[in-house]
Structure formats: structure tokens, C-alpha cells
Amino acid sequence: MLDVCGPVSGPLFLGAIPRAALERDQRLIVSAWGGREASEAGGLHDYANRQLSGLVSGLYAPRWRRYFTSLERALADGSSQTPIDWFTMEQTWADARTREPTAPRGDPWRLAARVADRLGKCGPLPAIAAGSGANQ
């Protein structure tokens, strides 16, 4: 009944929300969770932490690159690690209109074979002496 009686003006129709606004909201939900205060002080930063195609390559990978670049610089020159404004990074990603994948691509079997081949080239794992390791 609410769909018949409730919406009497344009802003109340889900279909009236511009596509760009919906897309931005989706991106904010899986990254920064709204404003800076909610994200940082409210503890909602990375709350969703999803492994979605497009999110991993478009946001998480650049975040990790920035973090490790900052860490390498600090270790190289003995300085403190430069603070990173994660919120601004997430907000910038959310505001982007990058077209993300909508269908699978690649072959998981070939990828698994490449991983197995790479692991084989790393050599066998060292033996763990009895009584040591994580199983204690």
C-alpha cells in the first residue's frame, strides 16, 4: 500500500534519484561510509570490507600501494611514516564514475594453474620441528 499511497512527490520515488547519486552512494557504502566523522571517529572506516571486482583493483590495491610506498620511504630514511588521508582516497574513489566490471572475465582454472606453478618455483616449505609452530 505504501507504494500506492505514500509517494506523492518526485523526491519520494526511488526511480527519481539520479543514477549518478545512486552509484556514488553505493561506492560510499562499500568504502568510506558517509562523512569523515562517521568514517573516522565513528569507527565505520572500511566497515563493509568487501571483495568486489572493481573495489579491489580500484580502491584497495591503490591504498595498499600508497601505504607500502609511505612505509618504504620511512624505513629508508629513518623518519616517521607519512600519515595517509584514507577518507579522501575513499571519497575520491566514490566520486569517480569509473565503469566497473559487470560480468566475470578470465579463467579461474588457468589462474589457479599459474599460482600453483609460481608456488612450485618458490620451492618446498621448510619443515616445522615437532613442538613448534602455530599448533601449540
In short:
The protein is mainly α and 136 residues long. It is 49% helix and 0% strand.
| Shape verdict | extended
DSSP helix fraction: 40-55%
> How many strands, what sense, and barrel or not for the largest sheet?
none
Low-confidence stretches: none
Strand content: under 5%
Count of DSSP-assigned helices: 6
First and last CA, distance = 60 Å
| Overall strand count | 0
User: What would you report as the Rg, rounded to the nearest angstrom?
Assistant: 22 Å
The helix-strand sequence is HHHHHH
Chain-averaged pLDDT: 78
Structural class based on helices, strands and sheet pairing: mainly alpha
Structure, explained:
The structure is a single chain. The protein has 136 residues and is mostly helical. Helices cover 49% and strands 0% of the residues. The chain has a domain at 10-100. Helix 2 (19-29) packs antiparallel against helix 5.
